[in-house]
Amino acid sequence: MAITDWPPQERPRERLLALGPASLADAELLAILLRTGVKGKSAVDLARQLLERFGSVSALLEGAADLAETPGLGSAKLAQLKAALELARRALREDLSSRDALSSPRAVRDYLRLALAGREQEVFAVLLLDAQHRVTCQELFHGTLTQTSVYPREVVKCALKHNAAAVIFAHNHPSGVAEPSHADEILTRSLKSALALVDVQVLDHFIVAGTRTMSFAERGLL
Questions:
Q1: How many Cβ atoms from other residues are within 10 Å of residue 132's Cβ?
Q2: Rounded distance, CA 192 to CA 207, Å?
Q3: Which of these, 168, 180, 173, 181, lies nearest to 211 by C-alpha position?
Q4: What single DSSP character describes residue 20?
Q5: Which of 58, 127, 196, 221 is 20 to 30 A from residue 84's alpha carbon, by CA?
Q6: What are the phi and psi torsion angles at 17 (to 5°)?
Q7: Does residue 183 contact residue 193 with C-beta atoms inside 8 Å?
Q8: Closest CA relative to residue 50, chosen from 7, 37, 39, 40
Q9: Backbone angles phi, psi at 208, to 5 degrees
Q10: Maximum Cα–Cα distance for the chain, whole Å?
């Protein structure tokens, strides 16, 4: 049954306008972005199918190549989904930049999950904090499915360029395992030592794997 044939009070768009977006399930919100379904499936059915296939909202929105091969998802729908993701990223980035990042650890984690979850290759990013702990994010290195080459000299240059007082590192594990490798621990110690020479403090290093994040600081690894 098409959504237009549903009772008005059950349609996602009408429910969102009446009750607010928080009242809708992920599939209903996604259906509003998709606008229409495909033959034999409503937009909600299609949204549920996509969420089951990708496993999470972030993985779905980042899976551009796979989404492009999905029947019923043309370039217009794909552009709408990617635009929604980028707007969410920018909103979180603005939120972090406008206040003390250390007073909003949840916002830091939310931003990192949205920025890094679902990437098919490893990405190493640095959150650069000024004296008031306002944030600028830089993606410095991109790698393969399993590894990224990170150069301490470039990290130090970036920190000095942005006059950073402190930094937070982050990288993703496309494997979905939010655990640090021995190489991750060695790299973190090396970066911390290099930045200490220029009086830049390392506050944390996050690993993002799907919807999960792991904090080096919380594990006592800094």
A1: 10
A2: 16
A3: 173
A4: -
A5: 127
A6: -65, -35
A7: no
A8: 37
A9: -110, 125
A10: 66
Alpha helices in the chain (DSSP H): 12-19, 26-34, 43-54, 57-62, 64-68, 75-97, 105-116, 152-161, 182-196, 216-219
| Residue the block writes with tokens 């240059």 | 157
Tokens standing for 150?
């990170």
Cβ atoms of 121 and 172 within 8 Å: the answer is no
C-beta of residue 72 within 8 angstroms of C-beta of residue 46: yes
On whether the CB atoms of residues 77 and 31 are closer than 8 A, the answer is no
The residues that bridge with 127 in the sheet, in sequence order, are 137, 168
CB 126 within 8 A of CB 158: yes
pLDDT at residue 84 in the model: 81
Tokens of 97: 């930049």
**In this predicted structure, which of 29-43, 149-163, 176-190, 200-214 has the lowest mean pLDDT?**
29-43
Report strand pairing: 212-215 vs 135-142: unpaired
Question: 16, exposed or middle or buried, with CB in 10 Å at 0-12, 13-18, 19+?
Answer: middle
Q: Letter for the amino acid at 72?
A: G
Q: What is the mean predicted confidence (pLDDT) over 15-43?
A: 87
Higher pLDDT, residue 4 or 204:
204
Contact between 122 and 174 under an 8 Å Cβ cutoff? The reply is yes
Instruction: Kindly report the number of other CB atoms within 10 A of residue 22's CB atom.
Output: 7
Whether the CB-CB separation of 119 and 170 falls below 8 Å is answered with no
Q: Does pLDDT of 186 surpass 60?
A: yes
